[in-house]
Write a structure and sequence with these properties.
Layout (H helix, E strand, L loop, with lengths): L3 E2 L6 E2 L4 E2 L12 H13 L4 E3 L8 H9 L1 H6 L5 E6 L1 E4 L2 E4 L3 H15 L4 E6 L8 H13 L3 E7 L3 H8 L6 E3 L2 E2 L31 E2 L9 H4 L8 H4 L20
Parallel strand pairs: 3-4, 4-5, 5-8, 8-9, 9-10
Antiparallel strand pairs: 1-2, 6-7, 11-12
Length: 258
């Protein structure tokens, strides 16, 4: 499969990525054996790009991904690109945003342990944290880069103004806008920020058929609200499955649709 430059980073990734929110259990029971078996199928199809998040089961999706890629992570680490996200935590039964330096460091360390790797190729702030100055978040990630724990940094669900503020301290190499396959809304506001076709929200710079942006999409406040997200209306095009749009049957999906 061909590769493209991911955002402003030098990472070479396949245009189709494998997202792992479905491994979290937020969409219902997970067949872990099937989950782990699906990853090698994606690898055999040529996919080298895998997207996870600490908040996807708080380590569960990352552990399953790391388990499936364990052999390559030990012997051929540079053949796969691992992207994950942090900056969310549970406060009782509520999912809250926390992009403070202390929590981001804890999140990176937890993700490294769950994935079973020494570094993360792309670490993304899952949602902007209104309680933490954006500059502090960016500075904390710059320090983690200097320490070699992460290689590249991106932002997720940020507005254009927030991206600009972040970039004053550390350029965001990738931007992941809020996307849903179920909302028929306009493209995200970040698209005009593109400098070249491969430097925007989509690795290829093209909008995939069947997906539309949802700039007003709100972050879930609890695990229960994650399960309330409607199924993809065009899932027959993205995956031949009757399960959720991020189900194990859809083992090849576009990461930005998660």
């Amino acid at each position: 499969m061909q590769t493209v430059a991911l955002g402003a980073s030098h990472l070479k990734v396949t245009p189709i990525a494998y997202g792992t929110w479905q491994f979290s259990g937020d969409w219902g029971p997970v067949d872990e054996q099937a989950a782990v078996a699906a990853i090698p199928r994606a690898r055999s199809a040529g996919i080298n790009f895998f997207d996870a998040a600490q908040a996807y089961g708080f380590g569960r999706s990352e552990r399953l991904l790391g388990r499936a890629l364990a052999a390559e992570l030990r012997s051929a680490r540079d053949t796969v690109v691992i992207a994950t996200k942090g900056g969310l935590r549970m406060d009782g039964d509520q999912l809250v945003r926390d992009a403070s330096p202390a929590w981001l460091r804890k999140g990176v360390e937890a993700s490294l342990e769950a994935l079973g790797t020494d570094y993360i190729d792309l670490y993304q702030v899952h949602w902007p944290d209104p309680a933490t100055p954006i500059g502090e978040t960016a500075a904390a990630l710059a320090e983690l880069i200097r320490e070699g724990l992460i290689r590249h940094v991106g932002v997720s669900n940020y507005t254009t103004d927030q991206i600009t503020e972040f970039a004053a301290v550390l350029p965001a190499e990738t931007v992941k806008p809020p996307i849903t396959c179920s909302a028929a809304t306009s493209r995200p506001a970040c698209f005009p920020m593109r400098k070249r076709p491969t430097s925007a929200c989509w690795p290829t710079g093209r909008w995939p058929t069947g997906c539309s942006a949802a700039p007003s999409l709100k972050p879930p406040n609890s695990a229960a609200s994650l399960r309330s997200i409607p199924a993809c209306r065009n899932r027959s095009r993205l995956a031949r499955t009757r399960r959720s749009p991020c189900s194990l049957g859809a083992h090849i999906v576009v990461a930005a649709c998660l």
